[in-house]
Design goal:
This protein is of the alpha/beta class. It is 30% helix and 22% strand. It folds into 2 domains: 261 residues, Rossmann fold, CATH 3.40.50.150; 113 residues, no CATH class. The protein starts with a strand and ends in a 17-residue tail after the last strand. Bound molecules: S-adenosylmethionine.
Length: 387
């Protein structure tokens, strides 16, 4: 039976050995390597000369390559210090034309430590996610997400009309102001007119009824025809419009979401101590970030690898999303943070991160493996499942 694995050892040695049993296995790799901060964070050493860091990453990307499926996708997260080196390296090893996206992610808030040198330099709040495909079949799923609250609130101000009878044909539609409709339907009972509560309730109702909440905008084709009332118009190139007294009727439902772009500012990095066990303060990633990566480039049942396990975020998310996984780390926190975190996930006792979002209730299992070169434990690398 195929097993998920958490492996204690140097990821170069482990990945090199995995090539014998798991070549072409992984659909998605997420790498969150030491950023070369020049310091020693509480959990692991992070000081290398620039050329040493490049060599370290080159060896690991080369060892990863044979493990990836021909249409697999590799994500590597990094901050400003080594981003440029990493990009050149990934172009060299995976192919410049294989770069699917270079995402910029807002990874911290403008507060506390970040602001202590704000008079001398710009506070750093972003990181980079370089995403490469392994072959011409590699792709990222088209995803949409809810517009930012302030942008959406702006839209909602314009949409003030509701279709009372959307089940009828457009020429029969009866339009009402949302406020009138909500009052007459008893949906604002007990809510004072003109109060903040009324505004908020109306906004909620607009989103709930977005398929029939509408707004008028200019449209040259419809202006030329200037039809009275409401009617359906098919343009010469076959596009369907609803004409509303010479203007175009827009539906709120078509403007709530937007395509996911390569600028991610919506992922919260606050309260990460509530995700997983232990502190791992400075480099733990939010489960929501890994959830997005896995949604973009994998499906249930796929194999995921994270050679820089840290607190076990990728494995925890992969497990909750029904993917199979292998994760590797060479430091003690694999035992004191990642393993207890994954034990809790399996036992259904991890209430943090994406648990509620995906309805995770526990289940599955994993093996804890000592790579022989790391000393101790049995060598069970060969137990990584065959296709
Ligand atoms: C930036 S942290 C990863 C954090 C992780 N993404 C999380 O959310 O908790 C980098 C991790 O790589 C591990 N690491 C560094 N060099 C390694 C190596 N040669 N082999 C295995 N793990 C290594 C460190 O111990 C550290 O846990």
């Amino acid at each position: 039976m195929a097993e998920n694995q958490i492996i204690f050892g140097d990821n170069l040695e482990v990945m090199t050995d995995l090539a014998a049993t798991a070549s072409g296995r992984f659909q998605l790799a997420y790498l969150d390597p030491p950023y070369n901060t020049g310091g020693t964070p509480e959990d692991y050493d992070d000081q290398r000369e620039p050329d040493q860091w490049i060599r370290f990453m080159r060896e690991r990307l080369q060892a990863l390559r044979p493990l990836m499926a021909p249409d697999g996708v590799v994500f590597v997260q990094i901050d400003d210090r080594e981003q440029a080196h990493l990009k050149v390296l990934m172009d060299e090893i995976l192919g410049r034309e294989r770069c699917l996206a270079h995402v910029v992610i807002k990874m911290s808030e403008l507060s506390g430590v970040k602001m202590s040198h704000a008079d001398q330099r710009l506070p750093k709040v972003k990181e980079h996610l370089l995403i490469y495909g392994m072959g011409s079949g590699s792709q990222l799923r088209n995803m949409r997400r809810r517009k930012a609250p302030e942008v959406l609130a702006n839209y909602l101000n314009y949409y003030r009309t509701i279709i009372d009878n959307p089940e009828d044909s457009p020429d029969q539609w009866c339009l009402l102001s949302i406020k009138t409709w909500a009052r007459e339907s008893g949906l604002l009972d007990g809510v004072r007119t003109g109060s903040k509560n009324e505004t908020q309730r109306l906004q909620e109702l607009k989103l709930e009824e977005a398929h029939r909440v509408v707004y008028r905008t200019n449209n040259r084709l419809l202006a030329e025809q200037n039809l009275p009332g409401i009617s359906e118009v098919i343009s010469p190139n076959g596009r369907r419009y609803i004409s509303w007294q010479g203007k175009q009727m827009l539906f709120l439902k078509d403007h709530i979401d937007e395509p996911l772009s390569d600028l991610w500012t919506d992922l919260s990095t606050i309260n990460l101590n509530k995700e997983g066990a232990g502190s791992f303060r400075f480099s733990k990633k939010p489960e929501a970030l890994l959830h997005r990566c896995l949604e973009l480039a994998s499906k249930p049942g796929d194999w995921i690898i994270d050679p820089f396990c840290g607190s076990g975020t990728t494995a925890a998310v992969a497990h909750k999303m029904g993917r199979s996984w292998v994760t590797i780390d060479c430091e003690e926190h694999l035992l004191v943070q990642a393993k207890p975190r994954l034990d809790a996930v399996v036992a259904g006792q991890d209430a943090g991160g994406i648990t509620r979002l995906v309805g995770w209730q526990g289940g599955g299992r994993f093996q804890f493996v000592h790579h022989p070169a790391a000393g101790g434990g049995e060598a069970v690398i060969g137990a990584v499942p065959q296709n």
